[in-house]
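TA notes, week 10

Several of you asked for a full example with nothing omitted. So below is the full record: structure tokens for the whole chain, then the designed sequence directly under it. When grading your own attempts, check the secondary structure regions first.
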């Protein structure tokens, strides 16, 4: 990471949760288009281009891609891929129920309008709440791209999967 001179590293002494950290990173960003990618997600080569092509078309202010489980040789991961997937399938969608926060881009100005992510959500659910608040602005659409692919490297066991679901 140190070889990138234009990269700002933000370190927290205490884990304040996912929403807090998303808000902090977006606040510190100097760009109007910002991305959120979870630490256990790897983007395919043209992920960003496929999402950037949709921003500002049809009042689209936020886009997300299709996350595919990578480590399917593990039964817990295979179960999660089948019953708890983080994508909306093989077709593009304007205004799906919400965008999964693991791989999104959005306009910083929209983040400001909805007052950021709700920091009550420490580990998950922030994406559902945030998507609903963005859509409630009126004349602001969200977009799911089935072609903007990324891969989930989470490797669950019975304990981690149980915590994730409950």
């Amino acid at each position: 990471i140190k070889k990138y001179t234009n990269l700002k590293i933000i370190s927290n002494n205490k884990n304040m949760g996912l929403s807090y950290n998303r808000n902090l990173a977006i606040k510190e960003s100097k760009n109007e288009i910002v991305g959120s990618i979870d630490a256990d997600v790897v983007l395919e080569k043209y992920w960003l281009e496929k999402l950037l092509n949709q921003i500002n078309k049809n009042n689209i202010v936020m886009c997300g891609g299709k996350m595919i489980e990578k480590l399917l040789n593990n039964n817990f991961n295979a179960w999660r891929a089948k019953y708890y997937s983080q994508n909306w399938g093989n077709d593009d969608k304007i205004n799906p129920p919400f965008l999964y926060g693991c791989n999104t881009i959005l306009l910083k100005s929209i983040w400001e309008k909805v007052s950021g992510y709700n920091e009550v959500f420490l580990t998950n659910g922030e994406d559902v709440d945030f998507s609903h608040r963005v859509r409630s602005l009126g004349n602001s659409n969200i977009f799911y791209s089935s072609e903007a692919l990324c891969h989930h490297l989470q490797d669950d066991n019975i304990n981690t999967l149980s915590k994730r679901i409950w």
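The radius of gyration is 16 Å. Use that as a sanity check on your answer.
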